[in-house]
Amino acid sequence: MRSVNPDSPPGPAGPLTPRPDVLVIGGGVIGLVTAWRAAQRGLRTEVVDPAPGGGAAQVAAGMLAPVTELHYGEEALLALNLASARRYPGFVRELEEAAGLETGYRACGTLAVALDADDREHLRELHAFQQRCGLESQWLNGRECRRLEPMLAPSVRGGLRVDGDHQVDPRRLAAALLAACERAGVAFRRASAARLSVSGDRATGVVLADGTELSADRTVLAAGPDSGRLDGIPAELLPPVRPVKGQVLRLRVPGAYAPFLSRTVRAVVRGGHLYLVPRTNGELVVGATSEELGWDSTVTAGGVYELLRDAHELIPGITELPLTETGAGLRPASPDNAPLLGPTELAGLIAATGHHRNGVLLAPVTGDLLGELLATGDLPEQARPFTPRRFGAAASEEHLR
Ligand code: GLY
Fold this sequence. Notes:
The longest helix has 25 residues. Strand 2, helix 1 and strand 3 form a beta-alpha-beta unit. By secondary structure, the chain is of the alpha/beta class. Helix content is 27%, strand content 25%. The N terminus and C terminus are likely disordered. It folds into two domains: 172 residues, FAD/NAD(P)-binding domain (3-Layer(bba) Sandwich); 149 residues, D-Amino Acid Oxidase, subunit A, domain 2 (D-Amino Acid Oxidase, Chain A, domain 2). The chain starts with a strand and ends with a helix.
């Protein structure tokens, strides 16, 4: 086993740096935004990831949809989602400036539509729930939906117009975060974290797959679904994060068809959720399955078929478009679908994981909350409902009392 020595020459795993203040395990959108904010606060920060900017960011559609993705029982999460959506315009301005790259942020709004009577009932209930939560959405009949989006099938029976749910391009967002991190002095260790190092009752860093040992004052666990299975974390403290597979298609809208869709279109089709996210560069992202299949991330004929079948029912003209890409990613899901943010019960280990369907949406607020925690040691009030300790042994005892 090798220890990091600031005087050593660069190793195969990347340039060596003085002992960082913060080690971030995972270079997805959440790990990168955390590292960027930490570095901006003057902390020596290092990210451990074999391919930073990869992972779910390369698959996700990038909907910023707190209103149309509202679910019963997730009111606390709604508040965090809305807070992050409000930060997006300022966040992308700052990030694009810092990185010198664009993120593809588009304030285009969303239309959620229903195809049959059951779907319409589902949307009506969602609309009532949105109104109880004080959210802005407007009920439209089928004709009004088609006036907004003429490519919709004549069978569309109604829908919800939500002008505040927007989109960003996760691939460009990840590239911009990577560049901003590099410019802010974040060091990258392009290697896999094999296990967390624990000394006594404290996390002290990570051991890489090649045996290299890295130590830091604080370690941030931002490894997406892998956060729930990292060796070295005592079993009873492992965050309850599991993979939920999502298959996604990418199509291309040739110039002649533009604009195919002018905003994000979502639908419930026979109980399944479908979305189509049109980018200004002609890309059309169609998603997504939601499959509890453990670590399986294969693209299946069945997954592609179901997405295309439902998309065709919603927008018949879709079959004319070139299919350019298929992909599958793993969402890091927690038992209550909300993220785990803040100190864990293991001193020195901080969680920024479990963002499930909302990793891209929650990037700005996660970066701000984690940056504040890492710089000051205080967990901001807004993060308290999302403490990882809500799932710990102490929380279970409290619950039983
Ligand atoms: N937020 C979209 C998805 O998880 O598929």
